[in-house]
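Q: I have two molecules that I believe assemble together. Could you output structure tokens for the complex as a whole instead of separate predictions?
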Amino acid sequence: MGVLSKITRNCNHATLLIEKKLITTLSLRERIFLRIHLIGCDACRLYQAQTTKIGQMIKNLFNESPGVNITLDDEVKKEMQERIEEKLNKN
Amino acid sequence: MSNELDPHHWVKAHADYLYAYTRARISDEELARDLVQDTFLSALEKVGSFEGRSSERTWLTAILRNKIIDQYRKKSSGLLNADVQRAEEEQADFFNSDDGHWNNEPAPKHFGIDEYDPLQSKEFDHILMKCLKKLPALWMSVFTMKHLDEEQTDTICAELKLTVSNYWVIIHRAKLNLRACLQKNWI
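A: Yes, here they are, computed for all two components at once.
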């Protein structure tokens, strides 16, 4: 396999670089690899668009303020406080 | 509010908050409850080190956070990694094993996400959630630390004891599985 086809065929590595690029800056070598790969690879260009969008969706999902109605039962809380008091009394 | 500790009121004042904080990071209800209880008990042992520079709640949350990270870390150790193996098997046929090229069937195809604007609508959040739930706990904890706590890469690596290259591999594999799951389940 020639050097060029190692770049153009390796979608596994290209998609890793796409993920890395969404978070950090790629090295020069990585940037060249990815640029050459994406010129000829429709599937990875589509991957890039889709995974970018998925990243936004994940971010939105985590940033919705959750937990407003996640609470503990009174019974559980009572037990928790009892164990605290127990430990306080031991010391 | 003065920064003093009052263990007699801890549960009343902070238990629900700490529990919700935990549940946003750990889905297991029972484990979440245990972590909150555990936080109060170990806080009692540390009252001497409380210097009043932060509020009681902030102090308790910091103790809890360490316990949550310990849980994440446990999940990254060898024995519990059956779920990682399972997830990796799912993507075993994504790429040609010789040259790394997409195999035909699992290669990205156009689907509904291409026209979808996640900033406009949350219509497909439930599918995303379903797909996220299938991810191994360790991969999920990386996402949680990144998006919920907005931690930087090196902090996440240090806390989960991952190498940076391992971190990229996890993000890559998690996104590969997520994308495939969304393509499969999008209606």
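A: One point stands out. Chain A touches chain B through 50 residues (CB under 8 Å).
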